[in-house]
Write a structure and sequence with these properties.
Layout lengths: L8 E7 L3 E8 L9 E2 L4 E5 L3 E6 L5 E6 L5 E3 L4 E6 L5 E8 L7
Antiparallel strand pairs: 1-2, 2-9, 3-8, 4-7, 4-9, 5-6, 5-8
């Protein structure tokens, strides 16, 4: 879950026992998700061509170049703040995998 201080808008589109699908929308450059740690593996599907800045806990900033429709995935435990580096409105879809697919 994201920090209440973020300015990007997260809208849950679908949620069930297996997954949560959220659209993250950044209205302008500098909008951010707020600091958060992912508690589940997740997949991101960009809906734009552009750049996101990723602030990391060690004080560094990474830059991610995204392409519309080209997904990437990350494992649980990632902590960051995601900031729009674009001078246009942009969004991505985040799919969190809530259910562990491995047999118990």
């Amino acid at each position: 879950m994201c920090d209440a201080n973020g300015t990007a808008v997260g809208t849950v589109l679908l949620e069930n026992d297996r997954m949560r699908v959220t659209e993250w929308r950044f209205a302008k450059m500098g909008d951010n998700t707020g600091w958060h740690r992912h508690t589940h593996d997740y997949l991101v599907i960009p809906r734009f061509d552009g750049v996101l800045h990723i602030d990391l806990p060690d004080g560094t900033r990474a830059e991610a170049t995204l392409r519309n429709g080209i997904p990437y995935e990350r494992k649980a435990g990632v902590e960051h703040d995601v900031i729009s580096g674009n001078d246009f409105e942009c969004a991505f879809i985040e799919v969190e995998l809530l259910e562990d697919p491995r047999p118990a």
